[in-house]
Every structure is written in structure tokens, then in C-alpha cells.
Amino acid sequence: MSKLITLFLLATLFTSCHAQIPVTTIQLDIEPYTLSEWTSDRQGVANQFLDLIDKLLALKPPLPLRFAIPRWFDGISITRNGVTKYLSQFVQDRAHLMIMDYVNTAQRAINDAQDEIKYGSISGTKSVIGLETMQLPSEPTSTYYGKNASDLESDLQLIDSAFSLNRSSFEALCVHDWKNWKVFTANFTKPIGQLRRDLYVWDNSVILVEEVRKIFMDDLKILNGKLRRVYLEAEYLMYNSGVEFKVWSRSGASFRRFQLGINYKSC
Ligand SMILES: *[C@@H]1O[C@H](CO)[C@@H](O)[C@H](O)[C@H]1NC(C)=O
Ligand SMILES: *[C@@H]1O[C@H](CO)[C@@H](O)[C@H](O)[C@H]1NC(C)=O
Ligand SMILES: *[C@@H]1O[C@H](CO)[C@@H](O)[C@H](O)[C@H]1NC(C)=O
């Protein structure tokens, strides 16, 4: 796992002013449903996706793995080795989740996440629930874009309260993504509630481009005390690091994005 450890060191260096802050999770956003075979052979592709997860786990990653899955995986029934259950459950049996709960009301977000939160108490794995702020012209109800920052804050609070008795499987809320949330909050000038949330950064220029990194670091100062964890896009680090990327992408499922989750604390 030396390549992965190198990545952690890079990530720690990246947050060098936060040198004591551990990288706490490896998140993968693989998106098997973006393959054309998803339509023609969903069972096959879903099983390849699970095979990939099993291969990743067999590498014994030094940190817990987390998979970003869409909210509707809990409606996709899959049979694997004679066992039939929902795809979300098969993933939860193996790893933690980032539920891309991309809807635009608290009630829908709660409804969509509750099966995963419930099942997490059986599987013993945890879910982060993520909301979207990016403009999605063809799916306007999949994002808070078009609503206002106080709508988002109050809905985050409602979702958190709805699962307040389920902390063993409900880990945190998350906002996707850094740049769009920034636009959404007029450069973070709108009030941000006390609820500490995760930030799905998504934009790899935070790692690759020095000027962007500086802006990001300045934003982290503004968000001081509001964030629990940031997910840094590490796709390019993986490309550059070679070996594991090849292993991880050999399964037949498309390999989309890879993030390192870093628990955030101010300097
Ligand atoms: C949350 O926990 C409460 C109390 O144990 C339980 O009644 C409820 O079903 C749980 N909700 C979910 C979605 O698991
Ligand atoms: C935000 O939008 C809601 C309707 O979704 C409205 O009731 C509320 O007044 C707006 N708040 C602000 C601060 O603009
Ligand atoms: C946010 O900051 C950018 C870059 O400094 C600026 O161009 C933009 O006008 C700002 N937006 C708001 C709403 O303040």
C-alpha cells in the first residue's frame, strides 16, 4: 500500500498548516450506471461494481473505504451468489457510504436516505448524506440551486434532526461542492448554520493549481468551525501514482473519481 500511503502524505502536506489532521477516509465515486451496459446488463454491471469493491478491500486499504452512491441504489434489486438484496445494501455490507441524496427538500432527502440509515444499523457501516448545490438545468429538483442559502441551512438542520437517534449509522451531512456552494452563498457571505458538515470539494484544481489552492485555503478560514471533513479530489494523484490505479480500474466498471477525506480543523 505504499502508493496509498504516499497519497496520504501528499494530502497531509497539502494541508500542512493542519499537519495534525488525519486523513480519515478514502472515498470512491465509481458510477457504474454511467456505462451503457448498465441499461442492457444491470445485474452484470452491478456485480462487477461489487467485485471491484471486493478487490479494493482485498488490498487492505489502511483507511476505511467509502463509496459515493446515488440515492436510488436502494431501489435496485441485485442478485449476487444467490442472495438478492438492494445494491445499496450490498455496498453497505462492504463499506461506508456517501449518499448522493440529490433532491431539493428536506423531506425527500430524509425519505431517500432512511433505508440506508436503517440498514446501516445492521451492516455496521455509516452513511454521510450529501446535498447538491450545482446548477442542473435538466434536473432542477436534484439541487438546491434555485433555492436560497437559508433554505439549504434549514433543510440540513431538519435532516440532521430526523436522524438524531441514528448516529450509529448516520455519520454527517455533506455539501457538494466547494465552488458551487460558494456561488450559492454569494462567496460565503450568507449565514451558515452551526451544523458542522462535510464539504465535497470535487474540483481537483484545489490540488493541482496553486492559485486555486490559495483561494480554497482562504475559504477554509471563512468556513472555520463549520466543517467536519473535506473530501479532496485525488484522481490526478492516482493517475500519477500508477500501480493501484491500474488494479482498481481493471474490473470492468468505470473508475470515476477518488477522494481523500480529511477531517478539517482550523489552524
Ligand atoms: C432511528 O432510530 C430510532 C430509535 O432507535 C428508530 O425508531 C428509527 O427507526 C431509526 N430510523 C432509521 C431510519 O433507522
Ligand atoms: C428563501 O426562500 C424561501 C422560499 O424558498 C423564502 O421563504 C425565504 O424568505 C427566503 N429567504 C431569504 C433569506 O431570502
Ligand atoms: C465572488 O467572488 C468573485 C471572485 O472574487 C467575484 O467575481 C464575484 O463577483 C463574487 N460574487 C459575489 C456575489 O460577491
TrEMBL record:
Superkingdom assignment: Eukaryota
Signal peptide: 1-19
Keywords, alphabetical: Signal
Name this polypeptide is given: Predicted protein
Organism in which the protein naturally occurs: Naegleria gruberi (Amoeba)
